[in-house]
From TrEMBL:
GO terms for biological process: maturation of 5.8S rRNA. InterPro entries: Exosome-assoc_fac/DNA_repair, Sas10/Utp3/C1D. Plays a role in the recruitment of the exosome to pre-rRNA to mediate the 3'-5' end processing of the 5.8S rRNA. Keywords: Cytoplasm, DNA-binding, Nucleus, RNA-binding, rRNA processing. Belongs to the C1D family. The keyword Disulfide bond does not apply. This is Nuclear nucleic acid-binding protein C1D. GO terms for molecular function: DNA binding; nuclear receptor binding; RNA binding; transcription corepressor activity. The gene is C1D. Monomer and homodimer.
């Protein structure tokens, strides 16, 4: 970047930001080429339904985010465009998938085992009569 010629069409102060933006666009382009090299059906066949949902949601969110940026570059306020509601809708579904994923990761409670642990861990006092009855039985033998 240091050897690049600075264009006089924009202020020098934003050159670094524009260079970073150009690099980011290049990274997105490479990622898209990678994703497009594998057919969607091939990719989805290898995944379980939850993973398929994640791929679809990330793809939709990415596409709508890129459209958001496009609108901003065209001078349209994306906050007043229906794309904002679409991004919010996708975000809601992403949160639902995250909840499902978290529920799968959470440990399951074995109620029977838990009750046995608690029952055995609690101290139970012996009845007063039990010691006398045991002692009487020993004396008779």
């Amino acid at each position: 970047m240091a050897g690049e010629e600075i264009n006089e069409d924009y202020p020098v102060e934003i050159h670094e930001y524009l260079s970073a933006f150009e690099n980011s666009i290049g990274a997105v382009d490479e990622m898209l080429k990678t994703m497009m090299s594998v057919s969607r059906n091939e990719l989805l066949q290898k995944l379980d339904p939850l993973e398929q949902a994640k791929v679809d949601l990330v793809s939709a969110y990415t596409l709508n985010s890129m459209f958001w940026v496009y609108l901003a570059t065209q001078g349209v306020n994306p906050k007043e465009h229906p794309v904002k509601q679409e991004l919010e809708r996708i975000r809601v579904y992403m949160n639902r998938v995250k909840e499902i994923t978290d529920k799968k990761k959470a440990g399951k409670l074995d109620r029977g085992a838990a009750s046995r642990f608690v029952k055995n861990a609690l101290w139970e006092p012996k009845p007063k009569n039990a010691s006398r009855v045991a002692n009487k039985g020993k004396n008779k033998n």
